[in-house]
Amino acid sequence: MTDSSTNDTDEFVDDSVAGDDKPALSPLKLSSNQYMDDDEADDVAPLPEQAAVPEAAPEAAPARDPDAPEPTMIGYDPDGEFGDMDEMAAWMAATGDNASQDDIDAILSDSGVTPEAADQMEAEIAALEQGQRYTAHWDNFCADNMPPEDQLPEFKFTKIWLRHPDRVNAVTDLLDRMVFAGHADNPCFKTSKGVWSYTDVYRDANQLAHVLMDEMGVIPGSRVLIRGFNTPLLCAAFLAILKVGAVAVPTPPSMKARDLARIVDKAQVNFALCDDRLTAELAKVQEKRPGLYEVLVFAGNGQRPEGAANYEGPETGPNDWRYAEPLMQPKEPQFDNFDTSAEDICLIAFTSGTSGEVKGTMHHHRDLMVTADCLPRTTMPSGPEDVFVSNMPLSEAFGLSTLILFPMRVGASAILLQQFEPKILMQAITKLKATICCSSPASYRVMLDYTKKYDVSGLTTCISTGEMLSASLSNQWHNLTGSTIIDAFGSTELLGRVIASPLDELRPGATGKPVEGYLCRVVDESYRDIPTGMTGRLIVKGPTGCRYLAGENQTDYVKNGWNITGDLYSIDADGFYWFGGRMNDIIDNGGYEIVAPEIEEMLLEHPAVADCAVVAAPDQALGTVAKAYVVPARDQKAGEALIKELMAFIRKREDAFKCPTHWDFVPSLPRTDAGIMQRYKLREYAKKQYAQAKGA
Fold first, then answer.
1. Residue that wins the pLDDT comparison between 128 and 650
2. What is the rounded radius of gyration, in angstroms, for the C-alpha atoms of the chain?
3. Average pLDDT score over residue span 163-179
4. Nearest C-alpha neighbor of 604 from the set 628, 579, 584
5. Residue 614 belongs to a domain with what CATH number?
6. How would DSSP label each residue in 208-271?
7. What is the pLDDT of residues 459-509, one digit of tens each?
8. SS3 content of the chain, % helix, strand, coil (to 5)
């Protein structure tokens, strides 16, 4: 790693507003205690300390030692002589019905297939004939908790580049192959403190892989929870887990003990790697979950106490937690990745969706590889010279894609941010010369205010996901920056994005067209295709799909081989898909149906509104009504006068019945670490307000 700063901390800083001088009203506050239950509103983990932005981009990493020994990577064929399919073809030819043993030996020898490889393939074929699949997992928890075969989606591999060998370890292609294909000294991760080359990350991931197995007792198939801010070592931890054939369970840094405990229970997590600034909530979990018996701590800001081998934090964690760095230091910088099956689960990504109930979605090594390819081929061409940046955490599916999968697939680099505020993102784009930005509509909306102060002219591609991207926001961004935001739709269940606009076919307001490799349809309640222009349910089929842990809610998401996303769409005559809201965003407003995102988009066009959300709320007379929660813009006075102004603003543009009946002004709205609205919290808050008012 090349150090480019003398700062003690590792983050960008808002140079105009800092510390206690920050304004009380922030339209992108990540969460608000007023929307939490009483038992989860305490002990909020602090954000990392801020530091100054370097004046120049960090220097390149030092060259790799040419005398350093190279590892043997299982399944890696640097000369491209033959791969698994060629080996299998040779084996099939050699074992025909009339082939003698001499014939078999001769064909195998000519094809370069070793006797050991032949024996392994014979065992695999026998297993396939018996209905078994090869797996590297020694711990069979994931296989035992896979949904039944008849409840799985149908997977389609319609492009040749979607087809991967039966034996794939994703890290071999994403990281190791890049090191040995000429990218060893290229930057892999950038922060305000310096640059980590591909060699740096390769070394850290390999040493940590040794620690996982030798010091912690992790075996292939073990679930390993990772908890931290976006740092190079957190990313190396994710890669190390996959190297040893284990299963990564990433969690957001803001997650509280209650939800962490649910994840530990559902995934039966025995091991964890935790940033030493985020130990408090995990310590609460371990106290009541003895099955979580091994936790390693790493210095998230690079400031491990001098000589410390154990983590000592009497208020935030048990004293027997060890630091990872001293254990890594003596380990070999090479590691032979486990020879995993393409269908071995390597990631359990938890989502609360729109309900707030955490559900685990299981993804295997092949899922990661096809996700790394699909969206870039459609709308985001990139290469080694590109610099990705995102203010989404690694625990989010799209955060994982933009920080690891997309850049590593092409030997590019990613900027890692430990804070997710839009202004921090703008600083990073300017200072570290980002070319591809991935964020949420809410972030882009706030970033508009900083386009005059920060230079974002280096951006070639901007991707928006998580919520509807309005035509108004898209046009504003283009007018101020010269670049265009491309909308992209996907889900944690699908891992990747499945609808996006091709670069040569942008249509503001439309999400786009199906991403290469995916088939999308819009259907009615009987799953029949509906006419052009009509709104219906979106269903998806492709190379990835939903596998809920333990089959929980599986039949709600998968029907007849199709993934039912819960989103409403229409298709125009040119094949563009237009978002119509989530199915649970349809609100019965006193007997009339309205779509919440439509009203929100309208309200956000009013200069007095900084942020807003519209949800269903109980009403004694009408049953349910639409209630608007509004964050006023700065210097705007909340009150009856503003409500009347906003209602008149809506009624000039839409039918009167679409105007929310109830209104409330709030200082902030509940959002995930990625800036995505948590409407379920607002719905619960509306019920709580109604009950309190009724009781009064």
1. 650
2. 26
3. 95
4. 628
5. 3.30.300.30
6. HHHHIIIII---TT-EEEEE-SS-HHHHHHHHHHHHTT-EEEEE-TT--HHHHHHHHHHHT--E
7. 999 999 988 898 889 999 999 999 999 999 999 999 999 999 988 888 989
8. 35, 20, 45
Q: Do 613 and 601 meet the contact criterion of CB atoms below 8 Å apart?
A: no
Give 590's DSSP letter.
T
Q: pLDDT confidence of 563, banded at 50, 70, 90?
A: very high
H/E run at residue 541: strand 536-541
Q: How far is CA 528 from its chain centroid?
A: 32
**551: its two tokens:** 């089959």
In a domain, 96, yes or no: no
For residue 223, how far is the Cα from the chain centroid? Answer: 18
Integer angstrom CA distances of residue 541 from 50, 157, 520: 44, 10, 7
User: Is 0.85 surpassed by the pTM of this model?
Assistant: no
> Six-digit token pair at 565?
């996303």
327 near 215, Cβ under 8 Å?
yes
β-strands 247-251, 623-632: how paired? unpaired
322-350 pLDDT, tens per residue? 999 999 999 999 999 999 999 999 999 99
- The answer to whether residue 271 sits within a structural domain is no
Element holding 473 (H helix, E strand): helix 471-481
Distance, CA of 384 to CA of 417 (rounded, Å): 20
d(CA 167, CA 74): 10
> How many domains, the chain?
1
DSSP state of 341: B
Distances, alpha carbon 123 to alpha carbons 126, 127, 166, in Å? 5, 6, 14
Q: 611 forms bridges with which residues in the sheet?
A: 631
Range of the domain at 645: 590-695
475 and 463 in contact (C-beta within 8 Å)? no
Burial class (CB in 10 A: 0-12, 13-18, 19+), 166: middle
Does residue 183 sit in helix, strand or coil? helix
d(CA 240, CA 536): 43
pLDDT band at 56 (very low <50, low <70, confident <90, very high): very low
Give the per-residue SS3 of 16-65.
CCCHHHCCCCCCCCCCCHHHCCHHHCCCCCCCCCCCCCCCCCCCCCCCCC
Please state, for a pLDDT cut of 70, what percent of the chain lies above it: 78
Distances from the Cα of 433 to the Cα of 230, 300, 414, 427, angstroms? 18, 24, 11, 10
Residue 43 pLDDT level (bands cut at 50, 70, 90): very low
Q: What is the dihedral sign for C-alpha 341, 344, 347, 353?
A: positive
> Do the domain assignments include residue 663?
yes
With a CB cutoff of 8 Å and minimum separation 6, the contacts of 306 are none
**Number of neighbouring beta carbons within 10 Å of residue 103:** 14
Q: How many CB atoms lie within 10 A of CB 256?
A: 21
Identify the residue with better confidence: 289 or 81. 289
Q: Is 582 helix (H, G, I), strand (E, B) or coil?
A: strand
Q: Answer whether 399's CB lies under 8 Å from 584's CB.
A: no
Q: Which amino acid is at 300?
A: G
In a domain, 244, yes or no: no
